[in-house]
Design brief:
alpha+beta; 6 helices; nine-stranded mixed sheet
Length: 176
Amino acid sequence: MADLKRMTGEMCKHRVINSGLVLFEGGSYLDIAFDFNGHKQQARQFRLIFCSPSLDPVAAETMHNMLGSDLYTLSVRVVSFYDRMQEDQNPDDIFKRPEGASSLPLKALHYLYQTLMDIMFTIAKNEKIHLLYFVAENKQLNTLYTRYIRKFAEQRNLTCVINGACYAIRTPGCPA
């Protein structure tokens, strides 16, 4: 498990559960287990999903407005993630926090998002993905994602496009 004790002062760990990306029709996913600060009640398992844009027809118009012809000429993946406990509790609404799951402290949230971003960009590099596109599922996430995306893009000298709750980031492998 990777850890972040030196940065947070608390022990946060994660490990990738699958031996690689698991393929399904139109996409792939990776399951990641997180242990936040050694508290069993804060241990979570998330699924990080990469789908082709065609699997997300609701966002098609927004994607086209944000990305233009890049949507058709570059490798684009819609990225999402969810808590696997919610999949068991309510598979029709997987993006909500599972019932009974505690809120994560700010440092644990930072570790979660930073780790997910690092994994997304590693997969983008390995799979030759040029653009990552995702949507914040609610207003609270929109505020949080906007800060993280801007900071992440600035730190890595990446271009990002933000349109409301929709985000697109050009990966380092994206042609100019």
